[in-house]
Write a structure and sequence with these properties.
- The protein is of the alpha/beta class and 500 residues long.
- The chain is 39% helix and 12% strand.
- It has an eleven-stranded mixed sheet with strand order 1-3-2-4-6-5-10-11-9-7-8, with helices on both faces.
Length: 500
């Protein structure tokens, strides 16, 4: 029964609990047992909060037994990316500079999960400060892709993706700055969503790039993602960038699954050289599928999307350079050289040298240079101009079509270690996802098959206008229903020792 519980969707588990067929405590215990069985090999979690999760689950059971009306996700366990502050758990951001740090408050996302009565199983692994596409940049070890333990689960939300793909959690929370939800969702065979920027609160999300960071769900089905999306969304007065607008009807759209008459634009710039043939083949089949379901498919050119990657790697590091200046060894976290023989400046330098990893240092240096006197206009200023052109490309495209589609990422999951010495090759994993982050519009990745070369998952990316997040779920649910590959597929390879 335990193994059956971990393989059920969040929606199915919620229905079973509401019907009295299973308790929230049983569901949470089954997932904790699964973590105990496989996570030594997957390394999805940095911290497991078993007792706290069970306390929440038992409370849900007691309140349900007393006849209290509960929310749609009450009792559904969740994996939370270790970049959200949690007053009862450490928050490390995958960095040695915050090893063991206990925040004094909950992030808004954390608080909303608690209000939804979702047991938080623990904090999931990530690339340090969310900077990376493979989870290899974590100071606490690499997470592994449950489809093939020798491959990456994507990043930076690789821990949350690996947890959901390995049946350790029915759903997870990640953050998307340049593709860090959608790319791991794609390579782990999951649904991953970047809501409209400002649609989900950044309060208590330890900042990487403040104009880009967006919390969102990872799940095994489109409906599960929609349920989590709805639970975490809404205006937050604690976040100055929060959108004061109604949450789009994402759950209703996920149940609609109808694309007849919908105008779908295929982004012509996202194909060709550098794309794995199997990825393009599955993507082409997904487009044909949408057309067969009644969508009106046309090709759309977004000419400035080709400049999104270089623009992003000036804007995001610049914001990181500013945001990470707070890690100065004076207020919290790691402190090195504080023995009375070093000045404050020396302590700061020694602490940052030991506490930050290579990729974080690389991006801080890039950003500091781009913001420096004499270079600001040439680099950061020009990048922001390109950002404006990308926003205009989206606006022009959405005058012609209702949604845009592309591959989520140019390749399937790559082997661990293959790109660690080639930062540019690593950055190219986010080639298709970055434009939506720069523009702030909504985007979703849904599985669209397996690449014939390696049998690994391929993701279809769907992009919608700002605050039209419901369109993502309408299209994603239609693709999911037509392909019918969401449930029961062989996520775990016996050859890797994880079992079925």
């Amino acid at each position: 029964m335990d193994s059956e519980l971990t393989r059920m969707t969040a929606a199915a588990l919620a229905a079973a609990m509401a019907a009295g067929e299973v308790s929230a405590a049983e569901v949470t215990r089954a997932h904790l047992d699964r973590i105990a069985t496989v996570d030594a090999r997957v390394h999805a979690f940095l911290h497991v909060a078993g007792e706290a999760a069970l306390r929440v689950a038992r409370s849900v059971d007691e309140r349900r037994a007393a006849g209290e009306a509960l929310g749609p996700l009450a009792g559904i366990p969740i994996a939370l990316k270790d970049i959200f502050t949690t007053a009862d758990m450490p928050t490390t951001c995958g960095s040695a500079i915050l090893d063991g740090w206990q925040p004094p408050y909950d992030a808004t996302i954390t608080a909303r999960l608690r209000r939804a009565d979702m047991p938080i199983l623990g904090k999931s692994n990530l690339d340090e400060f969310a900077m990376g596409s493979s989870t290899e940049n974590s100071a606490f070890g690499t997470s592994r892709n449950p489809w093939d333990l020798d491959r990456v689960p994507g990043g930076s939300s690789g821990g949350s993706a690996a947890a959901v793909a390995a049946w350790e959690a029915p759903v997870g929370i990640g953050t998307d700055t340049g593709g860090s939800i959608r790319q791991p969702a794609s390579v782990c065979g999951l649904v991953g969503v970047k809501p409209t920027y400002g649609g989900s609160s950044r309060y208590g999300l330890v900042a990487f790039a403040s104009s880009l960071d967006t919390p969102g769900p990872l799940a095994r089905t489109v409906l599960d993602a929609a349920l989590v999306h709805e639970a975490i969304s809404g205006h937050d007065p604690c976040d100055a960038t929060s959108v004061d607008a109604p949450v789009p009807p994402v759950v209703a759209a996920a149940r609609q699954a109808d694309v007849s008459g919908l105008r779908v634009g295929v982004v012509s710039e996202f194909s060709g050289e550098g794309y794995q043939p199997g990825v393009l083949a599955r993507f082409g089949e997904a487009v044909e599928l949408l057309e067969s379901l009644g969508a009106k498919v046309t090709e759309v050119s977004c000419p400035h999307f080709t400049y999104a990657l270089p623009a992003y790697y000036l804007i995001a590091p610049s914001e990181a350079s500013s945001n990470l200046a707070r890690f100065d060894a004076m207020r919290y976290g790691l402190r090195v050289g504080d023995d009375g023989t070093h000045s404050a400046e020396e302590v700061m330098s020694l602490t940052r040298a030991r506490g930050f990893g290579a990729e974080v240092k690389r991006r801080i240096m890039l950003g500091t240079y781009a913001l420096s006197s004499g270079y600001y206009d040439a680099y950061y200023g020009k990048a922001q101009q390109v950002r404006t052109l990308i926003i205009r490309d989206f606006e022009a495209a959405f005058e012609q079509v209702d949604v845009l589609v592309s591959p989520t990422t140019p390749t399937t999951a790559f082997p661990i270690g293959e790109r660690t010495d080639d930062p540019l090759a690593m950055y190219l994993a986010d080639l298709c996802t970055i434009p939506s982050d720069l523009a702030g519009n909504a985007a979703l990745s849904v599985p669209c098959g397996l690449a014939p070369e390696d049998g690994l998952p391929v993701g279809l990316q769907i992009m919608a206008p700002v605050l039209a997040d419901d369109r993502l779920y309408r299209v994603g649910a239609a693709v999911e229903a037509a392909l019918d590959q969401r449930r029961g597929h062989p996520l775990l390879h016996d050859a890797k020792g994880l079992g079925s």
